[in-house]
Specification:
Strand order of the largest sheet: 1-2
Radius of gyration: 20 Å
Helix content: over 70%
GO molecular function: DNA binding; DNA-binding transcription factor activity
Number of domains: 1
Keywords: Coiled coil, DNA-binding
CATH architecture: Orthogonal Bundle
Largest sheet: 2 strands, antiparallel
InterPro entries: DNA-bd_dom_put_sf, MerR-type_HTH_dom, MerR_fam
Distance between the termini: 58 Å
Order of helices and strands: HHEEHHH
Number of helices: 5
Oligomer: single chain
Protein name: MerR family transcriptional regulator
Length: about 120
């Protein structure tokens, strides 16, 4: 599929997709005979994973590190797993902190509900 179709499917702008290709996050996008990008199902799955990592707070430099390891193949599986475990730990800590913040807000709202 072309970049416009892929953009609509992934929710990422063509500019973002080109940027991801430029920095190496989308390193293996094929091109047709005219030189236009031809995105695959595998590209779609990879972009969905990149998006998930971004939405869960993984910094772009770590996503790029993961992508470089991914391009090197199965022999980097341990390193990729370690990166994901570290990110998972950070995410769990952030979620716990957010839950604490939410509970504090609920208490303050309850205070105002009783006051009013």
């Amino acid at each position: 599929m072309n970049i416009s179709q892929f953009s609509a499917l992934t929710g990422l702008s063509p500019h973002t997709l080109r940027y991801y290709e430029k920095i190496g996050l989308l390193a293996s996008v094929s091109r047709n005979q005219s030189g236009h990008r031809n995105y695959s199902k595998r590209d779609q799955e990879w972009v969905a994973f990149i998006t998930r990592l971004k939405e869960t707070g993984m910094p772009l430099n770590q996503i790029m590190e993961y992508a470089k390891l991914r391009e090197q193949g199965i022999e980097t599986a341990d390193q990729r797993k370690d990166l994901l475990e570290q990110h998972s730990d950070n995410l769990q800590k952030r979620i716990a902190s957010e839950v604490d913040h939410l509970e504090a807000l609920k208490k303050k709202i309850d205070y105002y509900n009783q006051l009013i």
